[in-house]
Design brief:
Elements (H helix, E strand, L loop, with lengths): L1 E6 L7 H7 L2 E3 L8 E6 L5 H8 L3 H9 L4 E4 L1 H4 L4 E2 L13 E4 L7 E6 L1 E2 L2 H7 L4 E6 L1 E4 L6 E8 L3 E10 L2 E4 L7 H11 L1
Parallel strand pairs: 1-2, 1-3, 3-4, 4-13, 5-6
Antiparallel strand pairs: 6-10, 7-9, 8-11, 10-12, 11-12, 12-13
Length: 193
């Protein structure tokens, strides 16, 4: 079995993700089951990726049910939820909720931002309130659910605290880009994925 696969939905260059995880690209849903771990990165709009995701929907659900590690990055994290204000397509519905657009703050939210993780072991592995690289205009609101694993804050005319990492069993999602976050991103991936 191959180690790590990165799903290519045809809307971005995922070379950084492949390099950081020594991963291979997956170009067909039929390849998913050949891997120990899967990454769903996301660049672009929820609707554009949502359309491409349809053929992968059932294989992804089966992969997750198998208990093998699954990671969603940026829009890939948002696709783990039910829907988004960005479009009409449905997400994977692994987690309940909807991505919404930032209001009262500059968009896109781009650059380095601190993250508070709920896990002591994560904080021990990568340090207290580490900084990661973000690029996004939509976010997952905080609801107090158990799967909320990391919190960040985007500050503008107002301040928006949002869920930037989710985790349940073998599924992990992050709004930030660990593959673009230097050493702390590398440590995070080694610790959590």
């Amino acid at each position: 079995m191959k180690r790590t696969g990165v799903i290519d939905l045809g809307v971005g260059n995922f070379a950084n993700v492949c390099r950081s995880l020594d991963a291979k690209m997956i170009y067909s849903p039929y390849e998913i089951n050949d891997y120990e771990r899967i990454v769903l990165p996301g660049v672009g709009s929820f609707d554009a990726i949502g359309d491409a995701l349809e053929t992968y929907r059932e294989p992804i659900h089966q992969f997750i049910k198998s208990g093998r590690p699954f990671l969603g990055i940026c829009l890939g994290m948002q696709l783990l939820f039910e829907s988004s204000e960005e479009g009409k397509n449905r997400g994977l519905s692994i987690f309940p909720g909807k991505a919404i657009k930032f209001k009262g703050v500059q968009t896109p939210h781009m650059g380095w931002n601190g993250v508070e993780f709920k896990s002591d072991s994560t904080m021990k592995s990568i340090g207290k309130k580490p900084y990661f690289y973000f690029v996004h205009s939509y976010y997952i609101p905080l609801t107090g659910e158990d799967h909320e694993f990391g919190i960040s804050e985007h500050v503008g005319e107002t301040s928006v605290r949002f869920c930037c990492a989710v985790k349940r069993d073998n599924v992990l999602g992050v709004q930030f880009h660990p593959e673009k976050s230097g050493e702390v991103g590398k440590l995070f991936l080694e610790s959590e994925f």
